[in-house]
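Q: What would this chain look like folded?
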Amino acid sequence: MNRSFAYRASLVLMAILAALWTLFPFAWYFLVSLTTPGHIPRRFSFPDVITFQSYVAALLGGGTEGTTANVSILPNLINSFIVAGLTVAGCTVLGFGAAYVFSRGRSTVLSVLFNGLLVIRMTPAVSLAVPIYLMINSYGLADTHLGLSLVHTMLSLPLAIWLLKGFIDGIPTEIEEAALIDGASVPQTLRYIIIPLAAPGIAVSACFVFLASYVEFMFASILSRGTADTLPIAIAGYNSEHQTFYNEMAAASFMSMIPLFAFFYVAGRYMVRGLTMGAVK
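A: My prediction, written as structure tokens:
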């Protein structure tokens, strides 16, 4: 009994230490966002004067004149949602179709193609920067939501296919065969049987794709020239040549997390079902 209690207590202690280690940078950065602009706390403690001036400056603008700290992040937030939404839609539609073919198809060619997705996934994205820029620029899609979402779709599509195939593999083929025998067509089988059963997997895939697109920085900085700047570009803009606006940067970073919390809260029910699907047979 005592040994069991000591074991559980040690696990709880390690979990608390891990949580403190993980959350400490966020807590300190949050204190920076509450400090008067231009000041950074030298120790981990509440500032003498708590102010939300940095949040107002980041949300509505009004920071230092002539710098990006004077510009609101709202347009960048809208751009991030548009690009991430287009990316999720593209990866969901293309990924589900490809995953269904890979799951139900039985051929050497499909097996080789599916395993080849790993090679694409392991390729460093920076090695593709030049050809992707030349291609997007030649089609006139630079600094557009569509051009950036196409690049994000290309980067996230292998992961979406891998995730969705695993969920479709868990759906018995006998259910489809029974529906076809009862007179349902293949599109009807997909719409009324496969897609509802694979909904948790689609939610999991959508969450990962949304997160990857929402925080992506490298291609957003290469392909955007002001019109399609996303949130990571706006947050990086607080680092100017002569000064870094840490307070506004911290405030913008925390406000950028709010849509993610809302998105994962809504999709959390499906994510839990999706991540645990197949754990119990």
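The two ends are 32 Å apart (CA to CA).
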